[in-house]
Structure prediction request, 408 residues.
Amino acid sequence: MKILVQKFGGTSLNTAESRRRVADIIRAHRDEGYAVAVVVSAIGRRHDPYATDTLLDFLKSVNPDNSPREQDMMLACGEIISGVILSAQLSAFGIDSKFFTGAQAGVHTDGNFGAAHIRNVAPRAVMECLQEGRVAVVAGFQGVSGDGELTTLGRGGSDTTAAALAVALNAECIDIFTDVDGVMTADPRIVKDARLIDALTYNEICQLAREGAKIVHPRAVEIAMQKGVPLRVRSTFSDSRGTMVSDRWESGAEEVTIRRDRLIAGITHTTQISRIRVEKPVEDTRGEAELKVFKSMAQAGISVDFINVQPEAILYTVAAESAHRAAGILREQGMEPQIEADCAKVAIVGAAMTGIPGVMARVVEAFHEQGIPILQSGDSYTNIWCLVKREYMEQAVMALHAKFQLAD
Prediction:
């Protein structure tokens, strides 16, 4: 039995017309001989009646200080509603189906309310449903802890559910259906000639996702990569082939075209960032200032990024909403932090850049030609990122896209 796992996001399910399109997609793949398991997100987005954010806003309007357990019970309702509605829609179109909550689908978690991790998946009931010739519709974003508590997986949790279920079912592929054609070389709202990327490695899409490309959750990619299950990012609303994510060639082709090495896969950006700079005392030669700074951030639960420790100063970034709290904590310890607000991070990502000279030179050249100051930079094997003022972000993305000829 060839199994295909498909995940549909909230915008794919929020109207009768879009659900008909989803049903047509499922029917087409069943006609190709696949047994189909479908993972769903909550219907719509904030202000739509059953969206996750709408449910959360409703709960907080009653009591802004709810326990994580109660909050998870509320948030899980969105996917349950979505799954039951889709199952009913499929049945109305003559496609036999059965709905499963995360717990019924065998998704077992570590019990961390609001941000649970999947420990294992025991998909016996889902497999039996598929063997009966029915479509299994599974609520994403949720599971059950060892002590029987309902838990949610955090943002992007439905992607994670789909990947974990696909691995457990030994699926042929995971299709992540969204409202865009696939992964683009840059945000098309910024770069008009951004193009669809036809194929990416697991590592490349993980880096793109971590650096701001909100297409698929990196945890889902990491799970798929563990067993080498190919993952496709596709649109519910077009016939585009989308972006294939895999470390192997697509099988079944009559011939294989050897593509030239692609230096850069894409450009991403992240906003709502503030940089904090703390001057180090001249007499501090043993790293006491670094210890004090980063230990205090950890104790306060403030995530830090873009860290640069210099002989004379410590620089790092935090989410803009955490900047003033972070600065207050540092001042309580006798430090005088400087905050650079309204920053953005722009990154180039590409697995082929490792060991290639001149990549950073081209980045700097692109920024210099446009008069864009670089506040800070960093790199890894597969990406280079630059911190700029928010006002330069779009210009920076376009400059890099042009410099690396990603529209070609």
Q: What stands out?
A: Residues 249-260 have pLDDT under 50 and may be disordered.
